[in-house]
Amino acid sequence: MKRIILAIAVLMLLLSSSVGLVTQQAAASQPSVSQNTSQVASQPANPAQAQTAPRYGTGGKISLPPPPSSIQPSSGVVDNRKIAPPKSPFTLPVFGTDINVAGGEEVAIAANPTNPLNFVAGANFGRYTTTDGGATWNVGNLSGGGDPAVAADSTGHIYFAELGNTSSCPDNPYVYKSTDGGLTWTGPVQPLSDPDPANHFFDKEWITVDNNPASPHFGRIYVTASVFYAPSCNLGNYINNREVVAYSDNQGATWSPTITISDASHDQNQFTNPIAASDGTVYISYQYQNCTYNCNGLPAYNLITKSTNGGVSWSPSITMTGQPISYTGSSVSGYQYLYASSTSTGFRHNDQAIIGVSPTNPNQLYAVWSDGRFESTFVYQGVTGWHGDIVSTRSTDGGLTWSTPIKVNDDTVQGKDQFFPWMVVGSDGTIHASWSDRRDAAVNGFPYREYYSQSTDGGLTWTPNQAVADVGGTPSSFIGDYSGLAVNSNNSIVIPIWTDMRSGQRAYVDRGLMPLATPTPGGATPTPVAGTPTATPTQCGASAAWVNKMSLPAVRTRALGAYYPTNGKFYLLGGRSSDSAGSDVLNPTEYNPGTDTWTVKAATFPTNLVNNMGGGVLTISGTLQIIAVGGSAAGGTTATGDVRLYNPTSDTLTTMSSDPWPEGAISNTLPGGFTVFQNKLYILGGF
């Protein structure tokens, strides 16, 4: 094994594609769980492989972005959306196989800022928790159950807000709290109240937390809601309503008095969406129509208001873009309807704006909503309505003025509805958006599936759309009023959640892994999380130093080391404790920087050919894994070309059944230098 290899061996592992030197294994079908149990929904270890050919947002999960020339503006009204320049696909999320979590609709999700693997989601009558980055989910519920909303504070406490679901006045909102990542809960506490509860009822509460250390209100929790005036609690004929907020400075134990945020002139409002900026400014968007219960055909406006004193007082509301939105759907009996399963059936939806804010510029805001300005019309129950697109706008002056809306969805055919968008801004400044989309159905067709796009230039352009859902489903008369989306603290996992109808009314998720995503130049520095090593800045000219940490459990040499970004831990694979035969180390060893501890894992290499391996961290079929190539045994003279995959999340080791490293298998050679670049493992030379 002393012969120098002059050729460069390249092991190409392409993201979510079956093309390449490695044959990907198809996943098993996704199990589902029933609601109100402690059963767990899980994702297969090897998510289903994607289509061989890139689909560019026309039905498959993309592996490469299309060239800009392949995206044409739609017919009809001019589409002024800017086409994003070609972008490395390795900064985009790679979605795996959908997970059928539980029954439910009106879904929401939030990420724990102290644990990049912890997300908590909810639906009507459902609570879902993952502690492994979305691979498996713990399913339960909390009392009450209407209109769930989830948020987390900087200490890792999770807050779950929902209505009491009493179907009578005042139907108060409540907040539950979890200190263990969403597995157990205390409460509830009532954050909002009304002085005339017999004639008012609450609807669609929302919750957010000011997690900005520079804010004078750092840690403050805000709960917002709509309050409808319905004399004698006639829920089917309310007169007007207002938007309200309350806040807590002691992690939800007690709350401020209820404060009205909407203007007196805006008395028909719904769907609050609050967000806290880096300087403590709080923004709340909501929708307004100048009417009473039945608003058929009247203009709708997306408004925004802000508070610079922690929610005590609020600015006059401003109309986003200065114009009413282009109302989507047919307005029938007080609701907006798109076609459901036929042209004679419909499901209700809305055009509410979802807002976000730059992590570093408190005056730079973003908004998305469904809008009909670029679309064609249809007729439902004799009423003409517009099909929907997803549009976005931004403000660089704290919401005073807004840019002209541009399309986010990049399909080119009229009559394909897009609806229920959600948006979240990562700590690196990337704007993530997901929505329900009918582009894969026939014109005026009915099945829909979840789609995704992102912007890394502050909402000026959007990436080619990616299909998230594996297949589509046809809506019933009610599929909720919104979807959800969350990104974790180190910007490595994004998880959309939506109501899916392929197997009944179910809450589905699909995690998108972004292992090689890089922040936009000039963007925010990600906040370090527990368990993640943190670099200490050193002034120019100052001396740096090494710091001794916990030693390995035993002497080790010739092992393969790798950092696993999903959980912020280091791993040593293989190696040996001496040069004597039989001293090979067959179990991976894990180092946790947060606790300065080593742990020997249960997974075991199938052979002792584990010395002098080459490798790194790659995404294979949507799953981030450590790959270990080649190797020999202590005291031996034979090398292997085996390619082994270690998944730290599931603590499993597998050997690829095909395509071994040729130099090890044929030439009895060990890897020389090696590195990973754009999800490919390069091995240079050998011995």
Short structural description:
With 687 residues, this protein is mainly β. 1% of the residues lie in helices and 36% in strands. The strands form twelve sheets. Strands 3, 4, 34, 35, 36 and 37 form a six-stranded antiparallel β-sheet that branches. It has a five-stranded antiparallel β-sheet with strand order 2-8-7-6-5, with no helix packed on it. The protein has a four-stranded antiparallel β-sheet with strand order 9-10-11-12, with no helix packed on it.
Quick tags:
687 residues, mainly beta, Neuraminidase, five-stranded antiparallel beta sheet, 1 helix
Please give a structural write-up.
Strands 3, 4, 34, 35, 36 and 37 form a 6-stranded antiparallel sheet that branches. This protein has a 5-stranded antiparallel sheet with strand order 2-8-7-6-5, with no helix packed on it. A 4-stranded antiparallel sheet has the order 9-10-11-12, with no helix packed on it. The radius of gyration is 26 Å and the shape is elongated. The model is unreliable at 1-40, 42-90 and 516-543 (pLDDT under 50). It is mostly beta strands. Helices cover 1% and strands 36% of the residues. 55% of the residues are buried. It contains 1 helix and 47 strands. The chain has a domain at 8-21 and 548-686: Neuraminidase, CATH 2.120.10.
